Amino acid sequence: MPEAEIVERCSKPYTDQIATVGFLVALASYVVYIAQPLSVLRAPLAFLLCPVLIYSVVLAAALYRKGTNDLPFIPFVVGSVFVVGGVALDGVATLMMTPTLRYEANSVARALLDTGLPVSFVVMCGIVSEVLFTLLVCIL
Fold first, then answer.
1. DSSP secondary structure string for all residues of 33-71
2. Phi and psi at residue 105, in whole multiples of 5°?
3. Using CA atoms in the order 16, 19, 22, 23, what is the torsion angle rounded to 10 degrees?
4. Which domain holds residue 88?
5. CA distance linking residue 126 with residue 92, whole number of Å
6. Cβ count near 12 (within 10 Å)
7. 19 half-sphere exposure, CB direction, 13 A CA radius
8. pLDDT digit of tens for each residue in the chain (140 aa)?
9. d(C-alpha 52, C-alpha 57), whole Å
């Protein structure tokens, strides 16, 4: 059996899990934030974002380890730093323009702010979520 088929067969459970998690998150986000029939679940779904992203990063790393080629380390690090720098710049610009996040339009941030959580917690949750998502995209 060719090596590519072996790798593909070994990585199938991870790709299935990533696809399932991605589909469920997209569906839940649509139902809760856009269609809004279950808008009472906005805050709980927002709190689940970080654990789901951590799980997704772990799955993506496991999927990468099933491959046969090595990751080009220097381009990966440089690209990741560049993208994470963009995320950081976005966060700094948002805080400079509206330090209280009074006009924040992000549905997840708005759900957390509407529960009465301090702005500093919402900002940290946003930064962690964006960094995890960025890392996930870089790994995939």
1. III-TTGGGHHHHHHHHHHHHHHHHHHHHHHHHTSSSPP
2. -100, -10
3. -110
4. 3-139
5. 12
6. 12
7. 6
8. 556 565 566 666 777 777 787 787 778 777 766 776 777 778 888 888 888 889 888 888 888 877 777 778 888 888 888 888 888 888 788 888 888 888 777 888 888 888 888 988 888 888 888 888 888 887 87
9. 9
The pLDDT, as a whole number, for residue 126 is 85
Read off φ and ψ for residue 33, nearest 5 degrees: -95, -30
pTM exceeds 0.85: no
CB environment 31-42: b (16+ within 10 A), e (fewer): ebbeeeeeeebb
* Count of the separate structural domains present in the chain: 1
- Residues 58-96: b if buried by 16+ CB within 10 A, e if exposed: ebbeebeebeeeeeeeeeeeeebeebbeebeeebeebee
Structure tokens at 45: 């779904």
For residue 89 the two structure tokens come to 């710049």
